[in-house]
Amino acid sequence: MQHKVKVTVIDKKLYPELQAQFCADPAAGACPCYNVGDEFIFERYGAADDFWHIGQNTLRQTAAQPEAVAGGSAFPHCSEAWDAISRYIYAGLQGGSIMRGWMNDERVMIACCSDGTRPVIFKIERMDYQVLHIDGIACEKCRDRIREALSGIAGVTSVVFRDGFTEVYVQHQVKEDALKAAVEGCGAYTVLGVE
Fold first, then answer.
1. What's the CA gap between 95 and 107, in Å, rounded?
2. How far is the C-alpha of 41 from the C-alpha of 191, rounded, in Å?
3. Are residue 90 and residue 177 in the same domain, yes or no?
4. pLDDT at 129
5. How far is residue 116's CA from residue 113's CA, in Å, rounded to a whole number?
6. Model confidence at 41, in pLDDT bands (50, 70, 90)?
7. Distances from the Cα of 61 to the Cαs of 64, 70, 75, in angstroms?
8. pLDDT score of 178
9. HMA domain: from which residue to which, for each copy (predicted)?
10. How far is residue 91's CA from residue 75's CA, in Å, rounded to a whole number?
11. Last residue of a domain, one of 100, 127, 154
12. Which H, E and C letters describe 164-194, residue by residue?
């Protein structure tokens, strides 16, 4: 089983009375680094190790200019946010419980940055998946056939084809035999390995 972590900005707050009273720029305004709806995906598989690059290039979705968002290609995550969320990201990437007993799903945590005048609220979620190495995929119809077969297995939530391997996202670990049978039952495909 492999793991990714999705971080989503779910809210931003602003306390202008605190900024007016305590900040060098009393009209600093809301956080410029993040936008509600920004989505980041952290990976640690193959050559990818987004955690050790402080999340640079993890931005997957934004309503703003991608170059102006933390986690985009121009700069990594804000240090105030990184300090607050990095421990949960690391736990999720290792397959651990992010917040057992506090959240109703131990794979999820709601956290905010430490800027008390303009905090950003994040949803951090561990995404579990199994990697399949499949031989014989030649076209999009092959992918559609395999995706449909894998999606019919209990616990499979989605299937993503990557360059050289397939990611099968799951709610819980699925037996290798079930994954192999689903793929190989579609035709002339061979599962070379499951991780």
1. 9
2. 27
3. no
4. 96
5. 8
6. very high
7. 9, 12, 15
8. 96
9. 131-187
10. 23
11. 127
12. CEEEEEECCCCCHHHHHHHHHCCCCCEEEEE
Beta bridge partners of 133: 193
Token digits for 53?
């690059």
pLDDT digit string (tens) for 130-188? 999 999 998 999 999 999 999 999 999 999 999 889 999 999 999 999 999 999 999 88
pLDDT of residue 46: 78
Choosing from 127, 149, 169, the residue where a domain stops is 127
Residues 90, 195: Cα–Cα separation, whole Å = 20
- 87 lies in the same domain as 164: no
Q: Domain residues for 159? A: 136-194
Closest CA to 24 of 120, 113, 117: 117
pLDDT given at position 75: 87
- Write the single-letter amino acid at 173: Q
Helix pair angle (140-151, 176-184), 10° resolution: 140
On the question of pLDDT at 19 being above 90, the answer is: yes
